[in-house]
Amino acid sequence: MQTLPSFDELKILAESKPEELEALRLRMSEEIIAGASPSMQPRLRAQLSHINQVISRGKNPNHTNVLLLSELQQQLKRFAQALNAPETLTEHQAEVKPFTRPSQPED
């Protein structure tokens, strides 16, 4: 498994070669997922996909960091809820209704 470069090297990549830094992030993420148990890999890929979507909404690096911090805080809040009050996770069940097409007016 590849080791993470030093902070100074990452800073240089971010400033001069952001596309290489992004490639490193994706490559290392894939290595971590590949090293996980097969049962966890789909969940980790879904999480990575979600992170990629959050990153794509960022307007600049600072905005991206704020968005990621917000996501992390939401995840930690949900984790704490799961540990402290697991029964509250299923309190709000959505009612799924079948989709019906509007009827078309007859000519």
Brief descriptors of the model:
mainly alpha; 2 domains; 0% strand; extended
Explain this structure.
With 107 residues, this protein is mostly helical. It folds into two domains: 1-35; 40-83, no CATH class. It contains four helices and no strands. The protein is extended, with a radius of gyration of 20 Å.
Topology:
Blueprint: H1 7-16, H2 18-35, H3 41-57, H4 61-84
Protein name: DUF3135 domain-containing protein
Pfam families: DUF3135
Region (Disordered): 88-107
Describe the structure concisely for a colleague.
The chain is mainly α. The protein has helices at 7-16, 18-35, 41-57, 61-84. This is DUF3135 domain-containing protein.
What is the average of the pLDDT values? 91
Number of helices: 4
Task: Let me know the number of strands.
Answer: 0
Query: Which secondary-structure class do the elements indicate?
Result: mainly alpha
Assembly state of the chains shown: single chain
Major sheet description: none
The coarse silhouette is extended
SSE arrangement, N to C: HHHH
Number of domains: 2
Q: Helicity, in percent?
A: 55-70%
Low-pLDDT residue spans: none
The whole-angstrom Rg is: 20 Å
The amount of beta strand, in percent, is under 5%
InterPro entries: DUF3135
Organism: Photobacterium lipolyticum
Pfam families: DUF3135 (PF11333)
Region (Disordered): 88-107
